[in-house]
Specification:
With about 280 residues, the chain is mostly beta strands. The chain has no helices and 35 strands. The strands form 4 sheets. A 16-stranded parallel sheet has the order 1-3-5-8-11-13-15-17-19-21-23-25-27-30-33-35, with no helix packed on it. The chain has a 15-stranded parallel sheet with strand order 2-4-6-9-12-14-16-18-20-22-24-26-28-31-34, with no helix packed on it. A two-stranded parallel sheet has the order 7-10. The N and C termini lie far apart (about 85 Å). The model has no long low-confidence stretch (mean pLDDT about 90).
Amino acid sequence: MAKIKGSIIVGYSNTLGTGTTKSSVLGGSGNSILGSSTSSIVGGITNSIVDVIESFIGGGQNNIISGSTNPTDKATIVGGDGNQILGSSKAAVIGGGLSNIIRGNTSTNISGGQGNTINSGSNYSSIVGGKGNTITASTQSSIAGGFDNIITDVYKCFIGGGGKNAIQYGFNTSIVGGGFNTVNEGSGQGGGYSFIGGGYNNTIGSYGYSSIVGGYYNTIDEGQGSFIGGGYNNKINADSETYGNYQSSIVGGYGNTITHSYSHIIGSNITSVSANTTH
């Protein structure tokens, strides 16, 4: 039978289970360490460490660090309620908050907030706070706050805040804030380095290096190096001759459309008629 080597200092109904070595529960109630080594729970209520190495829970309640069938090591939950670090997570940290989850990552961090998740394949990524934010399969990426923001299948991308903003595919892309803004540069399209400052329901498609500063319902579709300053319902669409739209811009206004590369619009309700032209 495997031996238990550890200590329970004070508290009530705390447990060190079979296979646990060099571990301790220092206080609190209903805390447990099972099948783990060199791990500690300082206090709190019904916190658990299961099948891990060199991990730590400071306090709070219903927090879990679990290796399951894959080893987890050097994981930390400082406090909060219902936070979880799961399956093959190394050096992951949850500072506090409610119901935050890290799954299978290296050196990831959720500082706080509620219902934030960093899924597997997102090494060195972080969520500072907010509610319901998610990072999936995206390395070195961050969400600072806001709610229901999503980063998926990217590299070195950032969402500052706002609500229901999304970055999918690409790299080195940012959405600072606003709501329902999207950068989706397409799998295999080679996009990246795009930017949305804020506003509402603005969209950047493939090929990258494009910016929308603000406004609402503005779209850059298949534009590279293109720009919309603001306004609403402005569009930069693909040029049928170049199969993209290169270095075009709409300063602001409303209802403008560019379908020619190297074209520019200043005003409202204007449609481009040729390339290399300011309208």
